[in-house]
Specification:
Number of domains of chain B: 1
Oligomer: heterodimer
Helix content of chain A: 25-40%
Helix content of chain B: 25-40%
Strand order of the largest sheet of chain B: 1-2-3-4-5
Structural class of chain B: alpha/beta
Largest interface: A-B, 28 and 29 residues
Mean pLDDT of chain A: 89
Strand content of chain B: 25-35%
Strand content of chain A: 25-35%
Largest sheet of chain B: 5 strands, mixed
Distance between the termini of chain A: 29 Å
Distance between the termini of chain B: 28 Å
Number of helices of chain B: 4
Chain lengths: 192, 107
């Protein structure tokens, strides 16, 4: 299911089965006292954050190990987007090259929220740029779905992986203020 | 502990094999450049048995490497030792269209 909802200046994009939940931020990532919140200060925070999420899930059997691997990839992609794809000049040029370590600017915020309840992992990353557009989201998903020829330089592959691996994916954009990207992963039996 | 990307290019039963290990992301770009230069051909196996996470930037590096080796240098490249999650990413991004997967050789 694909659902878009205009609310004031924000755009909410939700993709996935609702399963009875309300497709807004509170419905998709229910608030709970065991939700962990981390502020990112620099790109060097990424490995420790990934390890923290992976350790929470554990690797006691194949389903847990696969969930942990998916979670690690999702945190990686979401943080790369927040650290390197989101910061842009007014004309849309990326501010920071991908391979170079960086610290956050004084007025920049990246917040990671996650929660694991022994069956679902909820993950969310918000940046303070709001530079992603609704058009880019749909375009990234469409081009990576439709193009059969493997192209190394195709953009939006990270978002495409999120869409394919998350059980649901949501993106809320306040243009110029904030982008929130989140989703959930379900602990599932591993196919043999 | 995150393991940086590295590779070891060796002959395995007369076949040139690149044993890859660690995380494949944007930091692996210089190593992939070196690997491409060192491969002598005419065929190569990329062994992913010791590879951990591959993100979208890593997938782009692998696609670029395969494009260079198979289309510009006409090498026959095969892939082995791919984990379940990396196999999903390879299918989604078309890597298996450029290099066939072969079983990992039992030692």
């Amino acid at each position: 299911m694909m659902h878009t909802n205009q609310h004031e200046a924000a755009t909410m994009i939700f993709i996935g089965p609702t399963g009875g939940m309300k497709p807004d931020l509170n419905g998709l990532f229910p608030d709970s006292s065991d939700t962990l919140v981390r502020q990112v200060c620099c790109s060097a925070d990424k490995p420790a954050l990934i390890e923290e999420v992976v350790a929470l899930i554990g690797d006691e059997d194949d389903p847990h190990a696969l969930l942990a691997q998916k979670a690690a990839l999702m945190v990686d992609e979401m943080l790369e987007n927040a650290l390197y794809a989101a910061p842009r000049t007014a004309d849309g040029t990326a501010l920071f090259p991908q391979r170079e370590p960086r610290s956050l600017l004084p007025d920049e915020r990246i917040t990671v929220r996650y929660r694991y309840d022994d069956s679902h992992l909820f993950l969310e990353v918000r940046d303070s740029w709001g530079s992603l557009t609704q058009g880019q989201v749909f375009s990234h998903l469409a081009v990576n779905t439709q193009e059969a020829e493997p192209d190394p330089d195709r953009t939006g592959r990270g978002l495409f992986f999120m869409w394919r691996l998350f059980d649901h994916l949501y993106v809320r954009i306040y243009p110029g203020k904030e982008t929130v990207v989140g989703g959930s992963l379900l602990l599932q039996p591993v196919a043999r | 502990m995150e393991q940086h990307f590295s590779y070891d290019l060796a002959k395995d039963a007369g076949q040139e094999v690149a044993f890859l290990s660690g995380t494949i992301d944007s930091q692996a770009e210089p190593s992939f450049g070196e690997l491409q230069k060192q491969v002598s051909g005419p065929s190569l196996i990329l062994d992913f048995s010791d590879v951990g996470r591959i993100n979208s930037m890593g997938i782009a590096l692998i696609l670029r490497c395969l494009k260079h080796l198979t289309r510009e240098r006409d090498l026959q490249v095969q892939i082995r030792g791919v984990s379940q999650i990396n196999g999903m990413l390879f299918k989604m991004s078309g890597i298996f269209l450029m290099a066939k997967e072969v079983p990992t050789r039992k030692t």
